[in-house]
Amino acid sequence: MMGTAVRMIAESGPHSFGEGRPDMSDARDARLHLAPPHPAPPHADTSHPAPPHDAPLYLEPRLAPGPAALLRSGGRLHELVDALGSPLNVVLPGQLAHNLAEFGAVLRRHHLSGRIYLAHKATGSSALVRQLAVTQAGIDAASLGELQHALGAGFTPDRVMATGPKDPAFLWLAARAGVTVHLDGPAELEAAARLVRTYGLPRLPVVLRLAEFETSGPRTLSRRSRFGTAVKALGPLLDLLGRHREALDPVGVGYHLDTTSADEKAVALEGCLRAVEELRLRDFAPRAVDVGGGFGVSYLARADQWERYTTALTEAVLGRRPPMTWGGHGYGLRVEHDTLKGALALYPAHRPVAGAAYLDELLRRPAPSLGRPLGTLLLEGLCDLYAEPGRALVDQCGLTLGRVLEVREDVAGGPPQVRLALNAGDVGLEEHGVLVDPVLLPRAPDAPPTGPGPGPGPVGVHLMGNLCLEADLITRRIVLLPRPPRPGDLLAFPNTAGYCMDFTATRAQRHPPARRIAVGEEGDTWRWCLDEQYWPVTSDGGT
Q1: Fewer C-beta within 10 Å: the chain N or C terminus?
Q2: How far is residue 115's CA from residue 138's CA, in Å, rounded to a whole number?
Q3: Residues 209, 182 contacting (CB under 8 angstroms)
Q4: Mutual angle of helices 356-364 and 95-109, in 10-degree steps
């Protein structure tokens, strides 16, 4: 059910679209691929028949039923871009409930209490944050602006975590509001205690952020981080905390790891459990372990396509097949003296275990030293579990639309160059190393192809942005579309709500930033409103 603002705008007429079901033939052209309603279990067999060696190198997006249905209403999306401009960001707040339920099911499966916090930095959408406020989830605010936004969206202080580097204003508001503060080290600990004393504030709940964990044995996993206190310095940190006992209440410990490695996270989680015991030995009462984020998203529908593409890219870098990128870019791979060097610097766009399933696998993993499942150790230690997913919690919650402005023939005989009414900052897939095909939404699906490129079959193109910069490439790779694009068509970039939608957006060359709308399906009708006008309340004031 969309909110009051949505209903009022929708009922005025032009803000509703999709009456009845659209012609499903558009779905074939767009190559929509539905995601399963629930994540596949670890190592589930989701394979497809092996394609021929010379089959087109598609990277088909994984789409949940909500965004897939929205894309099938292609003509209505054209109307929205006509009215609101290109680029246009579209968010689907209703998808949040499903994603949150998947994480909640993991906690129940392991008999754990705790809370799932959205890492606010993943999205700038007010609609998504306000929708999350009506759930039992929390939010992780990493700046003064994010903290103000979270409190203004309806989050109560007990459901807010203040993380990230903290300037004085950010730390003051966090202490004043009484939100839980992740303390990055001794300096922040001292500053927080000083604020509590100076302003006569209640004892402040804090989480000690730790880093550089190690384990005994033949293999040591330890990674330096600019965040947190190294575990080898835990003793002095606890000595300092003891001197501020009346001002600070350590409710738990946590970690921040810039990795997807489950091995490293298992080491960190076990280290946090040991730190909890150290706190209890000093007569504190910690009750939670915060495992941070980094649970990942699977952007692609098919593992075989990802494997074929990365293999072909390696062959292209080695010169064994034609170039697959602009200027021979290798995404981290290069050739020196006929030898392949480097490493593929790409997000693993197809992940058999991601999101809530990744958290489940982490909790099932044996602790590196203690040998028992980490979830069991949390339960036996009477510890709540905090987690801070970013892109995993807003998975499938948004897409970005861009209009085709020009299709230019390449004078050197390469793929056509498609210029869009958006730039690389508006859809930061390349910035985050995500390779996924856009969905083509033709302006006139039945019109014959025009312009450069082959006939009605698949066509490879370069996607160019609207800045006068050589580097403004929407993606450096050649993108394969099921038919040649034409000026006026739309390209829909799926699953951009997490980081890719607005994390790198700018006002470069005075191009206006993308407007953002929130949409929701009511029966056979899609309702929409501007993102900032969305509130998750019904017409009778309920929630």
Answers
A1: C
A2: 7
A3: yes
A4: 10
Helix axes 168-177, 186-198, angle to 10 degrees: 60
Residue 352 class from Cβ within 10 Å (0-12 exposed, 13-18 middle, 19+ buried)? middle
Region at 204 (left for phi over 0; alpha for psi -120 to 50; beta for the rest): beta
pLDDT in tens, 406-434: 999 887 878 999 999 998 778 888 888 99
Q: What is the pTM of this model?
A: 0.87
d(C-alpha 245, C-alpha 242), whole Å: 5
30 confidence band (pLDDT: 50, 70, 90): very low
Local structure of 280: helix, strand or coil: helix
Q: Which of 62, 23, 12 is nearest to 528 (CA)?
A: 12
pLDDT of residue 400: 97
pLDDT at residue 34 greater than cutoff 80: no
CA distances from 515 to 280, 400, 528 (A): 50, 10, 13
DSSP symbol at 2: -
Half-sphere CA count of 374, side-chain side, radius 13 A: 30
Q: Which amino acid is at 20?
A: G
- DSSP E strands, 85-243: 88-91, 114-119, 138-141, 160-162, 180-183, 204-211, 229-230
Alpha carbon distance 196, 113 (integer Å)? 29
What is the C-alpha separation between 160 and 539, in angstroms, rounded? 28
